[in-house]
Amino acid sequence: MAFAGVLKEADVKAALDGCSAADSFDYKKFFKTCGLASKSSDDVKKAFGIIDQDNSGFIEEEELTLFLQNFSAGARALTATETKAFLAAGDSDGDGKIGVDEFASLVKA
Ligand SMILES: [Ca+2]
Fold first, then answer.
1. How far is the CA of 24 from the centre of ligand 1 (A)?
2. Is the separation of the CB atoms in 22 and 76 below 8 Å?
3. How confident is the model at residue 58 (pLDDT cuts 50, 70, 90)?
4. Domain parsing of the chain, residue ranges
């Protein structure tokens, strides 16, 4: 997985299992369960870089939809409802995407 070396595989599996049903994704629970919430800000930045697949410096809506697949290639895509809720929770300056500081706040929420 893309987070090997940062997160424990069993924790990631537990986090993914916890949101396997459509519309059950809860970012607070996910970040806590996978272990990212208790990582250093360097590790959180590293995670941001993985999720920002096109290296634009922002996590856009399309990248948020595929969020779970960064943790496991076989994971489901987020539903439109989940993606919108996730974006709304993170996008504090209202530009429609999530920057690294916004991401760090989400992870530590
Ligand atoms: Ca991006």
1. 24
2. yes
3. very high
4. 9-107
